[in-house]
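Forum: Protein Structure Q&A
Topic: Joint prediction for protein chains with partners

I've read a bunch of threads here and the consensus seems to be that you should model interacting components together rather than docking separate models afterwards. I'd like to see that in practice. Below is the full input, 227 residues plus whatever partners are listed. Could one of the regulars post the assembled result?
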Amino acid sequence: EVQLLQSGGGLVQPGASRRLSCAASGFTFSRNAMSWVRQTPGKGLEWVSSITAGGVDTYYADSVKGRFTISRDNSNNTLYLQMNSLRADDTAEYFCAKDGDHLWGSYDHWGRGSLVTVSS
Amino acid sequence: DIQMTQSPSSLSASVGDRVTVTCRASQTISNSLNWYQRKPGTAPKLLIYAASTLQNGVPSRFSGSGYGTNFALTITSLRPEDFATYYCQQSFSKPPWTFGQGTKVEI
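Posted by a regular:
Agreed with the consensus. Here's the joint model:
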């Protein structure tokens, strides 16, 4: 059974940093691209960042480019999102998501979400 | 970036109804269109990928159609557990991927 266990959410001050983690199990982690998607309060889903299976290529939404860094440790089956210079509008529930095997960018499994609240 | 426009933003329906949600892309995306269902307190669930392929385990009352810029999600014979918010998402070529704004299906 595929599982994506998230950790790292919480209350952070504006300008601070936080790292989210997503521990994967139940599939061959190194074979799938992975992504982070967020949902802000009262709004819809927003793609944040993606990383290819080998970790060579990374992609970011304009809203987080230069502040967030996605990475992965294929030896420990873990995905990360390092978030720096956090702003109030980064407040959201963050999901890690596993790419399906059939269409890049279609997410067949999701973590349960990590709430990040940016506030002083 | 490719913009995705869903309609309607919300709809009222009854158990047993046929429901259709539409999604339009700002440029052609071939069949690189996915549909998700989100219920409060749970993670999104993939229903359909590649515009019309049903994800494993998804009931056959869900179907997807479309190609290019116009797409639709149809639920035949709505069940109580189908009341949720539905999102389309394009995954054409390479990121950035974009989601529609969502359609809330309520009683």
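Chain A has a mean pLDDT of 96.
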